[in-house]
Amino acid sequence: MKQIASMTIIVLMFLTACGQQSGNSAKQKKYPVTKTDTEWKKLLSPAAYQIMVERGTETPYHNAYYNNHEKGIYVSAATGEPLFSSDDKYDSGTGWPSFTKPINSTAIEVVSDNSLGMSRDEIVEAKTGLHLGHVFDDGPKDKGGLRYCMNSGAFKFIKK
After folding, report:
1. Environment class of residue 126 by beta-carbon count within 10 Å: exposed (0-12), middle (13-18) or buried (19+)?
2. What is the pLDDT of residues 122-159, one digit of tens each?
3. Catalytic amino acids?
4. Do 151 and 132 meet the contact criterion of CB atoms below 8 Å apart?
5. Does residue 9 lie in a domain region?
6. How many domains does the chain have?
7. Which of 35, 113, 127, 143 gives 100 a disulfide partner, CB atoms 3.0 to 4.6 angstroms apart?
8. The CA-based dihedral angle spanning residues 55, 149, 23, 76, taken in that order and rounded to the nearest 10 degrees
9. Which residues form the signal peptide (predicted)?
10. Domain with 117 in it: what CATH number?
């Protein structure tokens, strides 16, 4: 009985320790623009907060910009920084806005995301470290082969 109790305690300690580890290297880095969760909640919409700060994702096909075909730029909902252009947007068939490249590669950062039992390349805003989406290598080959799969809630759209 003592062996079972000891093993149970060891297993629980292991699971608890694993649950406390961050699956995202962006959370460990210091960024130029930092705010408390309370400050982000005041600045961002509830959807933007859930996506950007809590590193969530929105429902495919039920978001503001996956089917947006207007000309303009997509700026950060947190800072207003220009991130993506409609000139580089395409229909990936995934239900999220997809782009072949950012406006300026220094405005975003690629970080390792090992959450949810998988390894992916996460895209965060370079100034804040806030979550925008992920990048995959299954984009249009004639445009570099990358698919920046972003969350509409992380953006504000500015028409040309």
Report:
1. buried
2. 999 999 999 999 999 999 999 999 999 999 999 999 99
3. 149
4. yes
5. no
6. 1
7. 143
8. -40
9. none
10. 2.170.150.20
Token pair for 62: 């039920």
pTM of the shown model: 0.82
- Of 121, 128, 127, give the one whose Cα is nearest residue 146: 121
Q: Apex CA 153: angle with CA 150 and CA 157, to 5°? A: 85
**DSSP string over the chain:** -HHHHHHHHHHHHHHHHHHHS-SBGGGGS--SS---HHHHHHHS-HHHHHHHTS---PPTTSSSSTT---SEEEEETTT--EEEEGGGEE--SSSS-EESS-S-GGGEEEEEE-GGG--EEEEEETTT--EEEEEES-S-GGGTS-EEEE-GGGEEEEE-
69 occurs within a structural domain: yes
Question: Quick one: pLDDT at residue 1?
Answer: 54
Q: How many CB atoms lie within 10 A of CB 113?
A: 21
- For residue 101, being part of any structural domain is answered with yes
